[in-house]
Amino acid sequence: MPIKNSELILNPDGSIYHLNLKPEHIADTIILVGDQDRVEKVSKHFDRIDYKSQKREFKSHTGYYKGLHLTVLSTGIGPDNIDIVLNELDALANIDFETRTIKEKLRSLRFIRIGTSGALQEDIPVDAFVVSEYGLDLNGMLHSYRTGAITIPEIEHAFIEHTQWPGFKARPLLIKCHEALEKQIVSDQTYKGITLTAVGFYGPQGRILRLPLEDEALNSKIQSFNYNGLRVTNLEMETSAIYGLSKLMGHQALSINAIIANRSLGTFSAHPGETIEKLIAYTLERLMDEG
Q: Which residues on adjacent β-strands are paired with residue 252?
């Protein structure tokens, strides 16, 4: 049964609606960044760039880095944007746009998220790199899908009990990264743990400007959570959404973040741009290491 025009929306030139891309425009390995200005910071390392596109905040460059075919694409901020980006990238890989039907042979993509984040633990300094071994979803977007067996209920239950998570909020979900990518990217230069994915930047991450919080102690509860040595290392707004959708669609995903703030110490990096540049170079080199 063909997918309806209202569900799979294509532009007049045949490209996918938001990303403005056609199937031939993406590589199997895709680097996801939040900021559209960070796309050039990644692609400047490429040997060549074969295709460029931008629509709204979704900017993409596809080319080669030391022989590796790569796409770098900006997602914008938040799980709602990740829902758009991951679904449209999967459509580019696995839906025949001519017949509007799912292909018989599915293509598995590799997603590597290069982001910025704030650490929750005092021993993780600013300018460090944190690999998200797990994504802890607190934003609720994944509840729109049948998550099935991709989550880890026993750790979710422990987190809910420890934080006294209220029933009126979306139930937390925990999703593991792709283990082969983890092995490839992790080194003695990185920390790893649970990355918490919030729905917003201020209240949902425990920041107070003028509005009071529903639970002002939530960040301290999250910081003290420990499940057999596994702890929440950092806060951001995309990782769990990438992990959840990737697992549901049969793709591989890993998130690595530059720590530009430490929420426990109240510190912020003196040179965040340099840290991000170092993280980009580190990630590209690790992607070349298939050992």
A: 110
Asked if residue 252 lies in contact with residue 246, where contact means CB atoms within 8 angstroms, the answer is yes
The structure tokens listed for 204 are: 């949902």
**Which amino acid, residue 202?**
Y
Closest CA to 247 of 120, 104, 119, 148: 148
**Residue 170 DSSP label:** P
The amino acid sitting at 139 is: N
Structural tokens at position 253: 């995903």
Q: How far is CA 199 from CA 82, 112, 130, 239, 288, in A?
A: 11, 20, 20, 11, 33
Rounded average pLDDT over 25-41: 98
pLDDT digits (tens, 9 = 90+) for 135-144: 999 999 999 9
- For the CA atoms of 32, 35, 39, 42, what is the dihedral angle to 10 degrees? -70
40-83 pLDDT, tens digit per residue, is 999 999 999 999 999 999 999 999 999 999 999 999 999 999 99
- Rounded CA-CA distance 9/4 in Å is 8
**Confidence (pTM):** 0.96
Mean pLDDT of 175-197: 97
CB-CB contact of 129 with 190 (8 Å): yes
SS (H, E, C) 183-225: HHHCCCCEEEEEEEECCCCCHHHCCCCCCCCCCCCHHHHHHHC
CB 196 within 8 A of CB 136: yes
Q: Which residues pair with 129 in a beta bridge?
A: 190, 258
Give the separation between CA 85 and CA 233, rounded to whole angstroms. 25
Check if the beta carbon of residue 99 is closer than 8 Å to that of residue 3.
no
